[in-house]
Amino acid sequence: MRVKKSAFHHKEFSFKADVVNDDGTFTGYGSVFGTLDSYREIVAPGAFTESIAQIKASGEPLPALWQHYSSEPIGGYSLLEEDDRGLKVSGWLLKDDVVRAREAYALMKARVVRGLSIGYYVLEDSWNEKDRIRTLNKLELAEISIVTYPANPDAQIDAIKSRIAHGALPTLSQFEQILREAGFSKSQSAVIANRGLKHLLDRSESGSDGDDNRTVKELSSFFSGFKLPQITKE
What is the pTM (predicted TM-score) of this model? Predict the structure, then answer.
């Protein structure tokens, strides 16, 4: 098991409109345990236990942000708890006091905006080389945002760009995803990632990272101009 403090991450989940109440309160799941996502990552039961305890001890509510913008808080969370399914949350919007919160409430009720996205740091994780699955064992919650889409490929690419910009290497699954979106086949992406990036990741974990800063800069330069192809609707 690896223990570390990583770059900031986002993970998206949808909620149901029937749990957005007239007073601006809402409930949903910020994370679901045991579900393999597009990054080939699984959140393990208990991953939020320590973070929830720390938030409760602070006496301050976890912020509810609009689209992950730290400059646009729109409410907070009164309940954070783990159950058999995942991270269950109850939140509230300051719809009578904050214009953006009022807009978010209207959009959530209309199901135009339908996502919850957690902002977190990875403290402990493990990697299954055979199944190529990363298990997130301990996470530090920073915020939970109201987002337009439960999953957004462009936002995922931006998250990887941010990870590289902060001097961290992407995971193998993240790098393979980018290669596939760039036009490589699944097998080609796996070969490129395993023969190139895997070597750097192994060196980084062993502490032999003398040339890794240069490599991170090269990756950052590559991704700075990377965009998903746009689909033209007829």
Answer: 0.63
